[in-house]
Amino acid sequence: MYTIGETAQMIGISTHTLRYYEKENIIAPLRDAGGDRRYDDSHLRWLRFVIKLKETQMPIGIIKKYASLVLEGEHTAQERLSLLEEHKRSIKKQICTLHAADEMLEHKISAYKAFCQ
Prior knowledge:
The longest helix has 40 residues, at 77-116. This protein is mainly alpha-helical. The chain has a two-stranded antiparallel sheet with strand order 1-2. The relative contact order is 0.10. The termini are far apart. 73% of the residues lie in helices and 3% in strands. The protein has a single domain (4-116), classed as Multidrug-efflux Transporter Regulator, Chain: A, Domain 2 (Orthogonal Bundle), CATH 1.10.1660. It comes from Cohnella boryungensis. This is MerR family transcriptional regulator.
C-alpha cells in the first residue's frame, strides 16, 4: 500500500491531481484506520491508464464517464468498448496530423538549411 505522496511520485503527477481525480470519481483510494488515503497496485495500473488517456487528449469528462462505467460493472462493457474505440480513432487522426506537420517542418528546415549555407 502506498501513501498519496508515494503514489503521486511513482505515477509522476501531483497529490493535488490525485485529490482532484478522487473528487471527480475517477479513482477511489482506500483509507487506513486514520482516514489517510492508501493506494495499491491496482490503483497504480488504473492511474497509469488514466494518465495515458489524458496524454492522448481524451477529455476529462469522457474519462469520468469511462470510470463511472467501470464502476457500474460488466453490463457496461459494450459502452466502454465504444468509448475506447472512438478514442483510438481520435489518436489515429492526431498521428496523421502530427505526421503531416512533421513533413512540412522537415521541408521548411531543409529549405532554411540550404539557404543558410
